[in-house]
Task: inverse folding
């Protein structure tokens, strides 16, 4: 499948104005193949406020936010870019997204990540219902981002195209989350800053498989192997060795400060696909755990076989912060996928279904100095 190039700009609604949403607005504004026609907000105080102000662009875009779902669907947009929080309302958000495609609007969303792959996590009848809604409305739904997303679906699968034999594929995120602003995720889901016996949601049996299992299964599907069930979950949590400041809430010594977890897909009992997260709130803690080769965080792909390969992908904002750039790359993976998703077959689509997605049209037009040459 070749790269999709729209004949005219696609009309886009951005759904949310928070952590991801503000970067979605900025991304649509900069993209030559997209036109911003609407913005949804859950916050009454933001209703009527210009999208440019909400995104911190320093200028107005002529599009104001609304809390009215039906008003935005009635605009007949080509696509909704959905960046609203879904981690704490998974099934409600699936109903929301299914409703959009049933109404004939394509959707590209940052969550829920359980929809990154079609098989093995949700009941077959639920997945069939999403596809049925898409066929009814003639619209597609794509869920992605950076992790779960590009860093552990397209990136490792492209690297496997260089393999003669594959014994094991391991994809990792290794990061310092102290500057990651998402209190619900940090405090409630991970349990950072909580007593070590706090029952954080992520460490309950089966939750890691629900959240990151689709990534492991998608890689296996891309490699043509059938995994044993259930997937294997491994978790090691450690207390903070000292008090640490965090933008989502300070971490006191002795409370949970770091975690290393894996979701492993085996074939006949042999590990073949592994997803690992090494997450710290203090970059100097746990020196015996994997660390980035440079910077505050990285995504790493390791393939053992013939040949053995390792690829480390790092990112940071132009002013240095890797969590800001993390929000940008999450948003841009969604923004740049819109043309391909609009052109896709109706129903739920995954990275295995889409053609090449690039940053077409985003090369700077300024001076060499502005381009960093």
Result:
């Amino acid at each position: 499948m070749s790269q999709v190039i729209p004949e005219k700009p696609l009309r886009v609604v951005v759904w949310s104005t928070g952590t991801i949403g503000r970067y979605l607005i900025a991304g649509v504004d900069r993209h030559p193949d997209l036109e911003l026609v609407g913005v949804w907000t859950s916050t009454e105080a933001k209703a009527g406020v210009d999208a440019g102000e909400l995104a911190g662009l320093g200028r107005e875009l002529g599009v104001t936010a609304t809390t009215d779902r039906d008003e935005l669907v009635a605009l007949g947009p080509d696509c909704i870019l959905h960046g609203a929080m879904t981690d704490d309302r998974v099934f409600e958000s699936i109903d929301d997204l299914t409703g959009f495609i049933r109404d004939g609007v394509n959707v590209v969303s940052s969550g829920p990540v359980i929809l990154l792959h079609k098989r093995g996590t949700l009941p077959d009848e639920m997945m069939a219902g999403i596809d049925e809604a898409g066929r009814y409305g003639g619209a597609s739904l794509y869920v992605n981002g950076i992790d779960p997303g590009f860093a552990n679906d397209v990136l490792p699968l492209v690297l496997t195209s260089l393999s003669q034999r594959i014994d094991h594929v391991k994809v990792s995120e290794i990061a310092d989350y102290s500057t990651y602003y998402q209190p619900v995720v940090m405090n409630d889901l991970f349990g950072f800053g909580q007593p070590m016996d706090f029952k954080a949601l992520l460490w309950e049996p089966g939750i890691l498989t629900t959240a990151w299992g689709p990534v492991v299964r998608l890689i296996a599907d891309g490699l043509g192997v059938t995994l044993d069930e259930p997937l294997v979950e491994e978790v090691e949590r450690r207390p903070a060795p000292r008090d640490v400041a965090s933008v989502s809430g300070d971490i006191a010594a002795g409370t949970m400060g770091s975690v290393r977890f894996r979701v492993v897909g085996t074939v006949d009992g042999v590990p073949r696909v592994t997803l690992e997260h090494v997450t710290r709130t203090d970059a100097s803690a746990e020196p015996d755990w994997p660390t980035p080769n440079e910077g505050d965080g990285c995504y790493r792909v390791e393939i053992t076989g013939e040949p053995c390969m390792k690829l480390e992908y790092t990112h940071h904002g132009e002013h240095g912060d890797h969590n800001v750039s993390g929000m940008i790359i999450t948003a841009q993976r969604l923004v740049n996928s819109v043309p391909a998703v609009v052109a896709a077959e109706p129903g739920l689509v995954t990275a295995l279904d889409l053609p090449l997605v690039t940053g077409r049209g985003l090369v700077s037009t300024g001076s060499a100095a502005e381009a960093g040459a």
Notes: The chain is about 25% helix and 25% strand.
